[in-house]
Amino acid sequence: MHPRLAADLAQLPELLEITRRHATAFLDGLDDAPVVPRTRPPHAEPLSDHGVGLRAALGEFTERWEPGLSAAAGPRYLGFVTGGVTPAALAGDWLTAAVDQNATSSLDAAGQHLERETIGWLRDLFGLSDSHEGAFVSGATMSNTVGLAIAREWLGERLGVSPAEDGVGALGAVRVLSGSPHSSVAKGLSMLGLGRAALETVPTLPGREAIDPEALERALREADGPRIVVANAGTVNTVDFDDLRAVAALRERYDFWLHVDAAFGAFAGLSPDHAHLVDGLDLADSLCVDLHKWLNVPYDSAVQFTRRRDLQVRVFQNAAAYLGPLGDTPDFVHLTPENSRRLRALAAWFTLRAYGRDGHREIVERCVACAHTVGQAVEDLDGLRLLAPVRLNVVCFTLAEDPTPERLSALADALAGEVFLTPTVYTGLPALRAAFSNWRTTDKDTRLIVKALEEAVRSLR
């Protein structure tokens, strides 16, 4: 054994304890640390021939790289709909690395069984029926892509071909209809060979990001053959929701696959006051939910659900002599693009088991309350303009006067030490978006955010 490896192995308990203390200190400092530090990245170092060992590597990381890390796990990082990591999820993720399971094969099946139990808990959490079967993937982009891949095979089934076997050329032209599709939908269509041009934007309701069901029906009426509809349960700018029941009811007259992008909007179902927003979620043929958002598990983690596991297997089955037969319960190696992956389910299992439905409902409702507090402050603050009602956990706003990209960028920069917001464009206007989904965020943070907004707006006058 290499001497550095041997030495680290001999001292492993002590080194892990040092690492634990270091991680704890980082987390303890999140409240006071700059949310996005303004530091220059260090110069790249050449790879060492002999290495320095874990202790020295940790010291170098602390000195060279840690000062530039953002407080993304903290309570005032409000960009990208990013969650943090609950204590239980953190423990689960540490153990994921320690046990180092590849959860895709029944030949070594404990990880698969744990993942199936976790999928069952998530299905129950989101109010889905047993007809929805799921698997873990890396994020919403891959979850949407897997759902669209299954939809592509469904189109082939309707036409008497199999794109998985015959290629996408066997389908001919494909139309994918959506009101306010997330960018990952177009990316998925590109990867699947259907093409970004297949995505057709359908008019939305006046002043909304939600699809107009009458406009969707007109588009379906004009469509030639079976189509794919991508509905939204929570748009990124204003967290708007399509009327899922109205959309699904159109299948009585038109032949289409219904995929629902509920990356973080699915969590509305945990709150009795907001569950109506996701009424009809179970009617989806396929469904995307991102877990490193509001479930507050570490990157990277999401889940996909579908009613047609048979088509999913047709797309993703992997034939190799060292794999077991498909059987009635296919291994996860046959269900997603990855042949191997870490046991992503363990962090989700830990946080669900530790805090249950009530604990995660409290996180959702607290985040929603914080968003409403900041949204009201934006409405009251001279110099800012709220661009849409705060429906759930996102505040979308701009400057009341001269909202140029440059001035919005200056506003975001002025806030960056205290709160991190991401830019967007809504109704043609440059804007900023504050997304509340971190389990640590409290009223104390909203007061700091409002104060920072007041000071930043004054600095621009």
TrEMBL record:
InterPro entries: Aromatic_deC, PyrdxlP-dep_de-COase, PyrdxlP-dep_Trfase, PyrdxlP-dep_Trfase_major, PyrdxlP-dep_Trfase_small. One of its GO terms (molecular function) is pyridoxal phosphate binding. SUPFAM superfamilies: PLP-dependent transferases. The keyword Lyase applies. The modification N6-(pyridoxal phosphate)lysine is found at residue 293. Gene3D superfamilies: Aspartate Aminotransferase, domain 1, Type I PLP-dependent aspartate aminotransferase-like (Major domain). GO terms for biological process: amino acid metabolic process; carboxylic acid metabolic process. Pfam families: Pyridoxal_deC (PF00282). The keyword Lyase applies. Its cofactor is pyridoxal 5'-phosphate. Keywords: Decarboxylase, Lyase, Pyridoxal phosphate. Coiled coil: none annotated. Belongs to the group II decarboxylase family. This is Glutamate/tyrosine decarboxylase-like PLP-dependent enzyme.
